[in-house]
Every structure is written in C-alpha cells, then in structure tokens.
Amino acid sequence: MSFPITRPRRLRLKENIRRLVRETRLTTDDLIYPLFVTHGREMRTPVEAMPGVYNLSPDLIIEEVARVAELNIPGIIIFGIPRVKDESASEAYDDEGIVQQVVRLIKKEFPELIVITDVCLCEYTSHGHCGIVEQERILNDPTLELLARTALSHARAGADMVAPSDMMDGRVAAIRRALDEAGYQDVAIMSYAAKYASAYYGPFREAVNSAPRFGDRRSYQMDPANAREAMREIALDIEEGADIIMIKPALAYLDIVRRVRDTFNCPVAVYNVSGEYAMVKAAAMRGWIDERRVVLETLTGMKRAGADMIITYHALDVARWLREG
Q1: Is 15 annotated as a binding residue?
Q2: 208 pLDDT exceeds 70?
Q3: Is 120 annotated as a binding residue?
Q4: pLDDT tens-place string over residues 150-189
Q5: 245 by DSSP, 3-state: which?
Q6: Residue pair 117/153 in contact by the 8 Å Cβ criterion
Q7: How many domains does the chain fold into?
Q8: Cα–Cα dist 57/81, whole Å
Q9: Does 123 carry a binding-site annotation?
Q10: Is-contact 187 215, C-beta < 8 A?
Q11: Looking at 85, 107, 108, 248, which residue is catalytic?
Q12: Contacts (Cβ under 8 Å, ≥6 apart) of 218
C-alpha cells in the first residue's frame, strides 16, 4: 500500500508517539568515561585540544569519579601518564605505577564502579611506540610479555577489566593466559580489536605526550581503507579470549560496527575518540552547532550501528542531559 493510505508521518506527529515507536535508545547505561591520571597532588592540567578534559592527580581523580558515580555511569577507563618514560615502559607494569595506585584508590572508594584500564606501552615509552623497539622496528613477540605483565599488575590492583590497545598479534591470548595462571579468571578483557591508524587521535597524543618519536604506527594499527581485515582481527581476538571487542575510532567506522554486530555474537564497544570530541567542541564554542543535539545524535548513531557501549569524553554531559530528559 502507498500514499494516501500509508502515511508514515502519523507516527511522528506527537512526542509521545515518537517515544513509543523509537527504535534506538541511548541511556546512561551505555557510557564509559575516560580519565587521564598523572602523579602529584592538586594537579589539574587542561588538555588544550580537548576543552573540558584534564590530566588529574589521584586526589582530584577521586573527585571526578564521585561525579561519575553520582550520575550512575557504570564504568570508567583509565590512562596513565608516568613520571619517567623509558625504552622498556617500566612504569606500565610497576605495581606502584600511577594507574595501579589510582585503581586501588578508586576501588576502595567506589567498589561497585567498573574500572577498566588501558593496557598499552605508548604512554610509558621514551620513543612513543606501543612495543619494544629494536633499530626502529617494533618487535611483536617480546612486547607480549610486557603487555601481559602490565595487565596482571592492573588486575592485582583491582581492575575489573583490562583493555589492550597496542594491536600486537597474539596479545589477547598472552594476557588471558597470564591472568588465568595468576588466578584472575574473572578479570575481563575488552580488546581494541579493530584499531585503525587514524588521524583522529591527535588530541589524545597531546594529552599523554605519546606521539611517536620516529615513524608512525601503521605497521601495527590498521589501514583505514580495510574492512575485511577488521573482521579477521576481531575473529582472532574472540578466539583468543576477548570478552568485549572494540572498534576505534567510532564515527568514521560505523560500517565496521554494523558488520561486526551482524557477524559476531559478543558485546561491541566503540571509542568516540579525542578528535571526534575536539571537532564538536570547537564548532560548538564558535556557535556553529548545537552541542547537546549533535552529541546525542552522534552517540545514538553509534548505538543504531550496533554498539552496546560507548567510551566517550562527553559522558558526564550526556548523563546530565539524559537525566534532564
């Protein structure tokens, strides 16, 4: 049947009708909030390219996490900024490293909050790459041991979930094995399974000072032109023991999210990354867009594509907006 018998506008005429037929719902339950932590006290250093985002010392992180808990956001993901960077990323797997200290603090104060830790080496290495380097070549297999040690140290500190973001081959299996052998079978793995070598990461690299000192990350992060490769990466990570898989970035890769949702029966996360956040903030500060409407529309699109959860720097604002209705 067609017009005039069929009139789709009938189901758009009133707000309550639109609510009844709404197919995709964004809720606070979908949100994970990223936090950057650094050594010191009363340290609140703004990230210039990410308005509203700060590098925080542990005492101020607790205040920020209190806001997360009050808004009923279910989880956070923590990124650490060490005192000293070296070639072996030693603070990444130090039990007294900044992430490990903060995880213990947060779990003591907010035991029900899900604490996820980023497992990578780029924030901790003097060269800025995600693995061990030899003659400007990033070595895959020697890196796995350090990634596993890092994940295990996070688990000992109390992390509920570890999130390897390095894109080394075999790292999920190495981490799962290390956790299980140490008795941490209940610590979950959220794998950055399809992490692209993206231009959208620029503001993040400013935040943690992790830009590579030579070359780039295209020898281990994925080519933005590839989709079938993403499916292979995800299948391998699930086989190796990933509990949740992630696509990063989100906005330019919603086709990948849709393919993954249609193919794999596992929870899917997306990372609404720093560059995506910065573009919205910059346009909103100039009055070119309605920030609230654009953010909610964008995150709803990620849900519609198939994401079960969204890591986003907008999380606090979104939770407030959703509470307001």
Answers
A1: no
A2: no
A3: yes
A4: 999 999 999 999 999 999 999 999 999 999 999 999 999 9
A5: strand
A6: no
A7: 1
A8: 10
A9: no
A10: no
A11: 248
A12: 197
191 domain residue, yes or no: yes
Can 14 be counted among the known catalytic residues? no
Structural domain includes residue 7 = no
Residue 28, classed as helix, strand or coil, is: helix
What's the pTM? 0.95
Active-site residue, selected from the candidate residues 14, 85, 107, 195: 195
CATH number of the domain enclosing 150? 3.20.20.70
207: confidence class by pLDDT, cuts 50, 70, 90: low
Tell whether 130 is in a known binding site: yes
| Residue at 254: amino acid letter | L
Which pair of structure tokens corresponds to residue 199?
Answer: 């231009």
44 labeled part of a ligand binding site: no
Q: How far, in Å, CA of 192 to CA of 275, rounded? A: 17
| Cβ neighbours of 306 (radius 10 Å) | 18
- Residue 302, strand partner residues: none
Length of the chain counted residue by residue: 325
Q: Residues with Cβ < 8 Å from 176, sequence gap 6 or more?
A: 189, 240, 241
Structure tokens at 240: 């190796």
- Check residue 210 and give its pLDDT: 66
217 known member of a binding site: yes
pLDDT in tens, 82-102: 998 898 889 999 999 999 999
Beta bridge mates, 116: 77, 161
Residue 248 bears catalytic tag: yes
Residue whose pair of structure tokens reads 């205040």 in the numeric block: 63
Contact residues for 100 (Cβ-Cβ < 8 A; gap 6+):
94, 153, 154, 156, 157
Q: Is residue 17 part of a domain?
A: no
Range of 73's domain? 23-324
